[in-house]
Design a protein that fits this description.
The chain is mainly α and 83 residues long. It has one domain. The chain contains 4 helices and no strands. Helix 1 packs across helix 4.
């Protein structure tokens, strides 16, 4: 899963127009109190992320890093980057 996040992060980093959207979505999905627990990163709750991945890809599916870009582009188009 680390390689997935590294690739997804690289794909977003190459698209500056998505940076504000990515920051906004990170803030929205971060687990409450993320700054109090290691690894001290604004990551989504493990249960929430697991649910979202199973919903999109099924129990045996593999997530695609490109889908992160597609999702952020959709959020940008829909105006979901407003906080």
């Amino acid at each position: 899963m680390t390689a997935y996040w590294a690739r997804a992060s690289l794909l977003v980093a190459l698209r500056p127009r998505l940076w504000p959207v990515a920051v906004g979505q990170t803030r929205r999905m971060a687990a409450p109190g993320w700054w109090r627990r290691p690894p001290f990163l604004p990551l989504p709750a493990r249960d929430y992320l697991g649910f979202r991945l199973r919903t999109q890809y099924g129990p045996a599916g593999e997530p695609e890093p490109r889908d992160v870009v597609t999702y952020l582009e959709w959020c940008r188009k829909m105006g979901h980057n407003r906080t």
